[in-house]
Amino acid sequence: MSEGPTVRIPTEPRDPLWFRLLPHPLISLVILVAWLVLDGNLTPANILLGGFLAWLLPRITRRFWRHPVHIRSWPKLVRFAVIVIWDIVIANLQAIRLLLKSPQDLQPAFFVVHLELTNPIAITVLANTITLTPGTVSADLSSRQERLLVHGLHVPDVEATIALIKARYEAPLKEIF
Amino acid sequence: MLRFAVIVAMLLFTVSLLLNLYRMVRGPDLVDRILTLDSLYVNAIAIIILLGIFLGSTLFFEAAMLIAMMGFVGTVAVCKYVLRGNIIE
Amino acid sequence: MSTELPFLVELLVSALILAGAGFAVIGALGLARMPDFYMRVHLPTAGTTLGVGCTLSASVIYFSFSLQTLSVHEFLISMFLFITAPVSSHMMAKVALHTGVKFVDHTQGRPWPSRTQRPSRDNSQILSDWQTRDRKETE
């Protein structure tokens, strides 16, 4: 990191003890689960080793996590994930129908989505969601993180697509993060 | 039946590898080649998993996992290099 | 391939494998046919990720039944692919925009107001161009 000493280390003395020990509980949880799934057995020694890594790795890399992940509403996150997975399957089938047509009939388009999100993690999730639903790829983010450039494979109505992205993906993300 | 399905699927994946290879040779830009390399490693993961089913062995997961990780890092490193002129800033 | 599976399981696994291979071929076919890069970059996310996803689910079902234990390694691989595929697509689209890759004429809209379509050039020129631009931006 080029910032060096100006990086704010998110463990202040006034934080509670568990927070000082585990500055990023979500990352720790993901590491522990990934470790157990990779190894495939649930012996106490293995859980202990996974727990040690889950404590150690976020601590070593903590200066890379300047914005702690904070999820305000778990039920909404689950609902959002279900919607996205469903959309991925549906949009995949639509995209495959498009692919079987002649490429000359497609109407590709560049369009700009003006973001209302400000949290970098929320913007990342939105850009990834747009790319994962086939037919749209997020191509670039403006330098002040307020506009997202999207390319669509077949967009007959640009305004409707922007409105759909804002209503279906951006609005839930605003409430989650 | 499963044996037959796996063989057919492997043939189909080989066809898709060849189509990717065609696009990689045609180009015409550097990014097209990065894109086909990305697509090639994803197809390679599928073929390795199919080989694992075919031979009834779970030893292939680690290879697939490693290819997934290395392929992603490779793609991002090449993109970063073309964008910025260096990889680790 | 030695253990006997119930017929329905075998049918499901075979169908998933064939569907996955079909998606991958359709994606690769699109990759070979599409006229410009920005249309091609959609296809790995569309065809290949779904194709590999189907193959990995087939593998989960097959090994869970043949080894009589839940086999979850493949979930890790498919989770990893689903997380990384959009990141690499985004990076490649960004590279294409910044190096001025051409797009087909009937594309609606233009990338950013400041970066209009430029002719595609050879890569050494693009690199030196972007390095000087980076230097200007940091000054």
From TrEMBL, chain A:
<dbReference type="Pfam" id="PF01899">
    <property type="entry name" value="MNHE"/>
</dbReference>
<dbReference type="GO" id="GO:0005886">
    <property type="term" value="C:plasma membrane"/>
</dbReference>
<keyword id="KW-1133">Transmembrane helix</keyword>
<dbReference type="InterPro" id="IPR002758">
    <property type="entry name" value="Cation_antiport_E"/>
</dbReference>
<keyword id="KW-0472">Membrane</keyword>
<keyword id="KW-0812">Transmembrane</keyword>
<feature type="transmembrane region" description="Helical">
    <location>
        <begin position="77"/>
        <end position="100"/>
    </location>
</feature>
<feature type="transmembrane region" description="Helical">
    <location>
        <begin position="21"/>
        <end position="38"/>
    </location>
</feature>
<keyword id="KW-1003">Cell membrane</keyword>
<comment type="similarity">
    <text>Belongs to the CPA3 antiporters (TC 2.A.63) subunit E family.</text>
</comment>
<protein>
    <submittedName>
        <fullName>Na+/H+ antiporter subunit E</fullName>
    </submittedName>
</protein>
<feature type="transmembrane region" description="Helical">
    <location>
        <begin position="120"/>
        <end position="139"/>
    </location>
</feature>
<dbReference type="GO" id="GO:0008324">
    <property type="term" value="F:monoatomic cation transmembrane transporter activity"/>
</dbReference>
TrEMBL record, chain B:
<feature type="transmembrane region" description="Helical">
    <location>
        <begin position="34"/>
        <end position="57"/>
    </location>
</feature>
<dbReference type="GO" id="GO:0005886">
    <property type="term" value="C:plasma membrane"/>
</dbReference>
<keyword id="KW-0812">Transmembrane</keyword>
<keyword id="KW-0406">Ion transport</keyword>
<keyword id="KW-0813">Transport</keyword>
<feature type="transmembrane region" description="Helical">
    <location>
        <begin position="63"/>
        <end position="83"/>
    </location>
</feature>
<dbReference type="GO" id="GO:0015385">
    <property type="term" value="F:sodium:proton antiporter activity"/>
</dbReference>
<dbReference type="InterPro" id="IPR007208">
    <property type="entry name" value="MrpF/PhaF-like"/>
</dbReference>
<keyword id="KW-0472">Membrane</keyword>
<keyword id="KW-1133">Transmembrane helix</keyword>
<dbReference type="Pfam" id="PF04066">
    <property type="entry name" value="MrpF_PhaF"/>
</dbReference>
<protein>
    <submittedName>
        <fullName>K+/H+ antiporter subunit F</fullName>
    </submittedName>
</protein>
<comment type="similarity">
    <text>Belongs to the CPA3 antiporters (TC 2.A.63) subunit F family.</text>
</comment>
<feature type="transmembrane region" description="Helical">
    <location>
        <begin position="6"/>
        <end position="22"/>
    </location>
</feature>
<keyword id="KW-0050">Antiport</keyword>
<keyword id="KW-1003">Cell membrane</keyword>
